[in-house]
Amino acid sequence: xxxxxxxxxxxxxxxxxxxxxxxxxxxxxxxxxxxxxxxxxxxxxxxxxxxxxxxxxxxxxxxxxxxxxxxxxxxxxxxxxxxxxxxxxxxxxxxxxxxxxxxxxxxxxxxxxxxxxxxxxxxxxxxxxxxxxxxxxxxxxxxxxxxxxxxxxxxxxx
Amino acid sequence: xxxxxxxxxxxxxxxxxxxxxxxxxxxxxxxxxxxxxxxxxxxxxxxxxxxxxxxxxxxxxxxxxxxxxxxxxxxxxxxxxxxxxxxxxxxxxxxxxxxxxxxxxxxxxxxxxxxxxxxxxxxxxxxxxxxxxxxxxxxxxxxxxxxxxxxxxxxxxxxxxxxxxxxxxxxxxxxxxxxxxxxxxxxxxxxxxxxxxxxxxxxxxxxxxxxxxxxxxxxxxxxxxxxxxxxxxxxxxxxxxxxxxxxxxxxxxxxxxxxxxxxxxxxxxxxxxxxxxxxxxxxxxxxxxxxxxxxxxxxxxxxxxxxxxxxxxxxxxxxxxxxxxxxxxxxxxxxxxxxxxxxxxxxxxxxxxxxxxxxxxxxxxxxxxxxxxxxxxxxxxxxxxxxxxxxxxxxxxxxxxxxxxxxxxxxxxxxxxxxxxxxxxxxxxxxxxxxxxxxxxxxxxxxxxxxxxxxxxxxxxxxxxxxxxxxxxxxxxxxxxxxxxxxxxxxxxxxxxxxxxxxxxxxxxxxxxxxxxxxxxxxxxxxxxxxxxxxxxxxxxxxxxxxxxxxxxxxxxxxxxxxxxxxxxxxxxxxxxxxxxxxxxxxxxxxxxxxxxxxxxxxxxxxxxxxxxxxxxxxxxxxxxxxxxxxxxxxxxxxxxxxxxxxxxxxxxxxxxxx
Lengths: 158, 659
What we know:
The complex is a heterodimer. Chain A is an all-alpha fold. Chain A has six helices and no strands. Chain B is 63% helix and 11% strand. Chain B has 22 helices and ten strands. In chain B, the strands form two sheets. In chain B, strands 2, 3, 4, 5, 6 and 7 form a six-stranded antiparallel beta sheet that branches. In chain B, strands 1-10-9-8 form a four-stranded antiparallel beta sheet, covered by helices on one side. In chain B, strand 2 and strand 3 (535-546) form a beta hairpin. Chain B is globular and about 85 Å long. At the A-B interface, helix 1 and helix 5 of A face helix 14, helix 15, helix 18, helix 20 and strand 1 of B.
């Protein structure tokens, strides 16, 4: 069960990571080597088009995005690894260019939110479940309820 | 003159709303029936007045009255009629007017249909509802008045952004707002219940139809926006984790959680305190969404209002209602009795898990959306949070949710039998296994885990189908018995089955199109051909054309499959007259296998054209799935037991034994 869950998690992660495909990429930019091109596309989807509002360089037809796409491909042709290419771009354009921020002190809360909320919620649920059964609803009736009950029964018998 | 009339009606509506806040609330605490009864005519006349204002503005748009600043800035005399009408809400001021109109529709609906509510509760609900109206009417009149005149009037307007001139988008905002604003009713009921200091199963029964209606409209509103993005933005994407999309998605997630927790409260009197909190939070997220979209704090493609004065005003509204609601909750919640105990493995337990995961994912989207802005204002550091972040955090949260989804409805209340349910789900698990094998056999590309994702969707779909078969004893009982059972199954049960089936379809569509999309980017000269997923596309050239308010270059593709002509695709590039802005119109051929999607790009120096062609397998499952969810909501809403006027009556036959 646990293994299946892990596989499932990775599955969804992989699938959802590949959602946005390229539209802005021009035919002239495409590298002849399909393996390199595929890597270029994957890297492009992680990098922000700096002059756009919420697009990756893979999605944007802005000229600056085109420059960055060519830069990514130049670095790949120069035999850089994927991480090297990203480091190179970040060194030039800053952390802002990353659509998935790095796990750092300043992004701690961002990355940990799902875990904190999930664990916090679990603690709350288990604490409220662990509460003794009698605390919320007692089995005996209060005086008020007793009079009400006898009234109802009296009405019923009439 | 009609415009001034509308302006005056809007001011009157504000005054009526103020009366509706004060008098019924005072009446409820003084137990004065006459004062409480003021709420009903006030709510109805508030609706009437805002409708006058709304149609006065629409009249100005339809007649192209450019002496009205709002019309001059956002409309144009050559625009087709439907977009003149839709233009009313295609801008900041008009969309706020639509917002308050829908708010007052919901308020008036409670006033008219809420006859079975206890009088004090009804008076308080309408009073709280009116306080939201006061806030937004003030906002509209003070910072976003659509009735301002221009002198001298310009001879023609500036026009509506052409990418917004589209039928799906014309009706996207009204659906979306009906969803957003509909959650205000749940909020008003929660606040009224906290003031009353009393909540029970009946409360959930009154709130659930409104929440369900709001959820339905939000579902279809989001789906329409996604569908529009898919064919209009010209790159076949359908979800971008844009802040504005997130703004509508957060209340959807919280609202979905609310629907499920209200179910527990209605049936078992458990989770009462939590449900109240969730009702407050869901509407707060709607307000947050309004803030994000309307203030322009997060600049994105969708934001057309960038004005700090407005942002501060909406922020104040947000803080007042969220803060006030939570403060009241903190004050009163501890006095509320919790009831209905249950084992972890039970229907209740599964719904708690559902809530936990949905609320966590809503929190993830909320923090991801606001984080860059908060970090920048605190430390000055600029970071981006985009699709890769959301995919890697939101995605994993959905896996356990989907795995548990078919199990939950099969578990018994209070104490469930997991082993027994897994036995009954054997067929669904088998269907999922078959799906894995089949996908591996058909597709050799894509991530190797993708078949498991498709299997997850198939498992959810099959789970819903087999649950139905189980409940009507298909295959084990006689034919008459099966039919009788199918007829007797409550509509709310059908609603659940539909909605859960729709989710499964949606997942299959998402995974299939993400993992197995085929893409070609190339230069094509007239006469050249291309093969896309078995289709032969022959490019015959580009011709210039002219529409009502645009010029366009239309490309022509002849599509054949196995030598037989299938269709002709005519993707085009348009340039609108006012404002002069280019758009891409994709050529799409839909079949049950998926969409053939062709876009034409710029002419190249060698006489060819840049062409992008895609095959998006099963992509329509995404919107069909959402539509099935919407229909499921509608079926459930039509259940007599859920209907607004019926709860008291329908409960009795179930309780009294038939002797």
